[in-house]
Amino acid sequence: MIKAENLTKVYRTDEIETTALNRLNLEVKEGDFVAIMGPSGCGKSTLLNIMGLLDNPTGGSYQFLGEETVGYSERDRSRMRKGNIGFIFQSFNLIDELTVLENAELPLQYLGLKASESKIKVEKALDKMGMTPRKNHFPQQLSGGQQQRAAIARAVVTDPKLILADEPTGNLDSGHGKEVMELLKELNDQGTTIVMVTHSPIDAEYADRIIHLKDGMIVEGEPVYQTGS
Ligand code: ADP
Ligand code: ADP
Question: What percent of the chain has pLDDT above 90?
Answer without folding.
Answer: 92
